[in-house]
Design goal:
By secondary structure, the protein is mostly helical.
Amino acid sequence: MSPEVECVETESNIIPIQDYQPESEPAGSKETLRSMAVEKIAEELKNFYGGQKEKCVSSHVAAQVTHFCEESPEFAEVVYKTKRTLSDCCAEVMKGVGNHISDFDVYRGIVRAYYPNADVRFLMNIEINGAAPSEEEMSKLPEKPAPKAKPAPNPQTKPQVTVVPPKKKEATQPEIIQLSLF
């Protein structure tokens, strides 16, 4: 400060500064919808209901729906605003499935449960690191686990039943039955 200027502090020239509070995001912002969709899926997983097959895939479907929501704000918005639940999504994915389903079909089912007109395309890249396997490695047969030994069955003695063969009938004339119709 320069000596000519005198600074006098009074209550009238003190400006109170409030603690900084970041502004909350608008209700429809993309980040808010993403987090609300993720919370919705987590809650629906806790309250999941469905059959055996649906329960088997529920945690994996929830993880994938969450991942899709984090990747796409549009997908997150639909997941949050739809009345369909994770249980409904799993039921739709597993509808008509026998004893197995491919991962790709599960992904398609998840997307179509929320976006019925959508489809999923897959791109798989194989990264070959290093040299090709040697002739010795390629000709080597895979190791097979040893078959499990079955325990010997407990011998149980069954009562001896003697079977008496039926007596042979003597050759006789066939019986004739006559029916009268009125």
